[in-house]
């Protein structure tokens, strides 16, 4: 289905008219938070549009149950964070233009939106109204800057609560793993789980242990060879002496072959 153009402007006194691209949201996968017959997808949403401003804008067409903002139209909805101070990575503020999913209470509301987009003529929607103004620019920056810092007591309380929940979950996972030991699954495989503080022996360690005294002897010989610096120096001296001795022997053989006229270098 093609998108419909929904014209709007920032304020009632604004001369610049902007555009939303809207259509009924339909997905091959069933998403409970976005029922197809009641969800409108909106593209070209600027950064300063938040959930509240879009709720006000589309409420003229019917009761809005939810407004979901995503970076892309293919992103799945995320569960809202209950934390006052922390947000998961997927719930960080979206930078730049975004996509909105408007969930109405009744399917007829979407029909009203599409009808308005196709037959509004010169009428345009207004985003920022007197009872719910949209703050942008320097005022928005100042408002964010003047927010009070979180209370250390409340912050510590939330962190402690999170850690308690985490410890409970970890303990439950350990208990579940213990209960599954020795129980075959549907395919007949038996789960083998080691529960304890000590780590298991790696395969390389097992192979080394099985090698026995022979491996230890070889390692010992490698470790003792050229252990001291003077051993390396003596070894090089002996090697050079041996090379000189062979060189002198070769010279004597060549001289003897010349004397007996059996020297044929080519």
From TrEMBL:
Keyword terms, alphabetized: RNA-binding
Domain RRM: 38-132
Keyword RNA-binding listed: yes
Keyword Transcription regulation among record annotations: no
GO MF assignments: RNA binding
A Gene Ontology BP annotation from the UniProt entry: ribosomal small subunit assembly
A GO CC annotation given for this chain: CURI complex
UniProt superkingdom: Eukaryota
InterPro entries to which the protein is assigned, alphabetical: Nucleotide-bd_a/b_plait_sf (IPR012677), RBD_domain_sf (IPR035979), RRM_dom (IPR000504), RRP7 (IPR040446), RRP7_C (IPR024326), Rrp7A_RRM (IPR034890)
Family indicated by similarity: Belongs to the RRP7 family.
Name this protein carries in UniProt: Ribosomal RNA-processing protein 7-like protein A
